[in-house]
Amino acid sequence: MSRGFDTERWTGLDGLVLVAAGAGVFTREASLLLAAGLGVVVLGYVRVAAIPEVSLRIERDLSDATPDPDDEVEVTLRVTNEGSGTLFDLRVVDGVPPALGVADGPARLGTALRPGATATATYTVTAVRGEHAWDETVVVVRDPSGAVESRETVSAETTLRCEPELAATADLPLRGLTSKYAGRVETDVPGSGLEFASIREYRHGDPIRRIDWNRRARTGELATVEFREERAASVVLVVDTRPEAHVAPGDEAETAVERSVDAASVAFSALLDSGDSVGVAAFGPDECWLAPSSGADHRARARRLFATHPAFAPTPPDGAFFPSVAVRRLRRRLASDAQVIFCSPLVDDYGVSVARRLEAYGHAVTVVSPDPTTTATIGARLARIERDLRLRELRRSGVRVLDWGDEPLGVALARAEAGWSR
Amino acid sequence: MSEITRKPTRTGTAMALSVAGLTTFTLGFTTSTAAVGGLVATVALAAGLFRGSRRIVDAAGGLFFLSLLFAGATGAGTEALLLAALGSILAWDLAENAHSVGEHLGRETDTLRLELVHAAATLVVLAVGAAVVYGADRAAAGGQPITAVVLLLVGVVALVTVVTR
């Protein structure tokens, strides 16, 4: 038997009993003394209150442990009393992962449980990207009178893993910086390709197919037609996961980090499809780096990374972060011919300085910026104007910027592309 | 996203208010002042439960106690007063329990079993207690001299101090 802490529920009853008894004596009314007697019985009941040894087993079943995003997953919580005593007053609150929202039915349970009996609670959560582990379940046990209460935590390991498919729904055009491998990015380097670039004097060894025969017929000189060479790029997708980037326009809306990761996974898939080598990095307290590469293995690795790496978790990180160290480390890792696609809401000046520094070091930077601002209040409008100014500053320094509002990424891209120079 | 309504549970509210109503009815057999007091206490209990305020629930308990005290002092019948005392304690207990369960688990959770077991436990203890007290009274029926009454008071005080220590 364990004695928990006193709930102080019946505090004051002893005083009332004494008052009733005193009044009974003074008025010589037996009925008041009897009522006081009843109070004494209750006090005795409260006095003997004790909680049996709590020994609970908790099991949790998920209808689908690896759901797609936005799927509803039914969770069945089973609580079994493995102790020898009956638990008269058992209250269970399940430790639902903070990122998962309970969509239907409370993740709570209140019942009385005989030894060996099992109580069940069923609720539904909406899956979001990531790996979610359930926290400890909090159990509150009270004795039948409610005078004594004890709190314990019981844990049952359950993990829900939600890995979205990498879908290439929008094609992100790259900038001119490329590697030496053939690919699809049109460069200004003359050579073989599709788009006409220039005509130059014939040099020994030029392929016969590329000799300009019209000119030969007209002037008698040999000339070679040159095309814009198409090469593959090496791209690193950098996602801003600093606590500052965990901002959303409303309580229920997706945070900018969520949207950045979405944009990065779309871009990843599209770039991989077009033969470029793509890498992933997180710019935040949690370190994450996937070196640029290509192939099916790489795609699978990236899919897992986007889904389950703690750096891309939908909840803000709480570790210490040294941004200048992170920038230096990122720069060391980037190959000199690597382009950078930086996904950041740009709600502070540091994001701008990161993009500008990377651009200055010769990595062609494209910023994809999900817009988390609103126009609800004057402060929000000021934040929006500040962000607009930051975007303008970036554009002025030669960085490509995609301002991504509420519309799908593809639409934002089509609108922005019109204004981009090659 | 479903929110948790941290208000006294519906089951507990219904049970507490019905018991409070019955108690008021019982007080009606004593004096009309006590019955009015019971009615006020019931309204206060209802207000406390709907507002979700523990303080108002406790105040309602106090009003019930005052009504009992008045009824007893003006010579109410033993049976009626004992029954009303039983009802008052049960009503307050159920209301307070509904409040605490609502705070822990919210209104959406199914807590019928939990609250029924709690109500049954309290009811059994109170019923047995009332039967014992009433039986003792019957057994010792007759006009007690004042010394016996004083001794009884001393006994009650001793009991209370021992039991609450």
Automatic annotation (TrEMBL), chain A:
DUF58 domain boundaries: 199-368
Annotated InterPro entries: DUF58, Ig-like_fold
Keywords recorded for this protein, A-Z: Membrane, Transmembrane, Transmembrane helix
UniProt entry tagged with the keyword Kinase: no
One Pfam assignment: DUF58
Transmembrane parts of this sequence: 30-50
RNA-binding keyword on record: no
Name of protein: DUF58 domain-containing protein
Source organism of the structure: Haloferax prahovense (strain DSM 18310 / JCM 13924 / TL6)
